[in-house]
Amino acid sequence: MSVVPSSTCRHFEIRPAFTPDNQLALTSSINHRQLHLRPSREVALNRSRRASICPKIRMATVDEMLVDRRTIVKPGDILAYDLVQGAEVRWSYIMDRTAPEPPTAVLLHGILGSRKNWGTFARRLAKEFPKWQFLLVDLRCHGDSASLKNRGPHNVASAACDVLKLLGAMKLTPRVLVGHSFGGKVSLSMVDQVPKPLARPVRVWVLDSTPGKVRAGADGDDHPAELISFLSTLPKEVSSKQDVVDALLDHGFSKDVAQWVVTNLRQMKINGASSPSLSWAFDLNGISEMYQSYEDTNLWKLVEDVPRGVHINFLKAERSLHRWALEDLHRIHVAEEQAAEEGGGVEMHLLEDAGHWVHADNPDGLFRILSFSFQGF
């Protein structure tokens, strides 16, 4: 694979990151310099057969120039991402778009997560399926996307719009969407808003999330709403990760969740110099809105009227944080039968020996279940 040179961009930096197995990962991070941009040309997306939730979504044509061997890319503000490519992928939307577009999968995290949650898993997929590339995204208000000035409301639909805009800027048509928890509903909303531009057939994986009402687990489980509420009481700057872990444990949260949450802490810089203080790499107020939308958003209509060529897969964790009501399971099974008759697909899967954090609790089992979506290329 040819080496992609480092490229400085007005909105994000693309830099090569080679993994031990020689896969290429293109990484973006937000650049905070003042922007003076020309408007980018836009090409309208095809409309859905459903009423679009976000009808003004457009697929941006990327305006790029070569200056001193550096590529200047000028789309509107887009989400931070990692692009993990298999060893046989030769395509680059920055340097060479003449090569055939490889099959692409989009991996979306849940509330209070980040694209880094999927890093190890994506590299494993890229090693097993070297013709594929995997787009890992920081959703709005999360990770390196938290600094973007996204307009509200902060909800499932707007988060889906953001990802569609990113795909438009990169001129990608994903064949697979994988979303964990909140990210699962975002994946469904993407299909609901603009299904036609998505590649046919497209497989959607909704990991441990139902399309409708979110039901809390048993007493003593780590409820996200309670976690968000508790984090709002902590100072915006802290002296150590261990102090936060201890506070979470004292408040009754599990050790696993406490250690996961502090991965969102970043060392602060003052006048370019590192500071001993740590700050949160998310917009907690925006995340609170997003979680409320996750509880309220109802996408059963999409599941019960699946677009032709789309296959929606639900995966339930055996020890799920959420309650999967018998009514939900029955409704999904009915949708399975109906979709099969109409050219779409709905399927239910069970991941044994796993709690809500499926890609951490049982990565081998999840890998086996997801793998058939990437075969045949």
UniProtKB/TrEMBL annotation:
Stretches that traverse the bilayer: none
UniProt cross-references to Pfam families, sorted A to Z: Abhydrolase_6 (PF12697)
Family, as annotated: Belongs to the peptidase S33 family.
Annotated source species: Salvia divinorum
Ranges for domain AB hydrolase-1: 106-367
Keyword field: Hydrolase
GO molecular function: hydrolase activity
Database matches in InterPro entries: AB_hydrolase_1 (IPR000073), AB_hydrolase_fold (IPR029058), Serine_prot/Carboxylest_S33 (IPR051601)
Species lineage: Eukaryota, Viridiplantae, Streptophyta, Embryophyta, Tracheophyta
Protein name, as recorded: Esterase/lipase
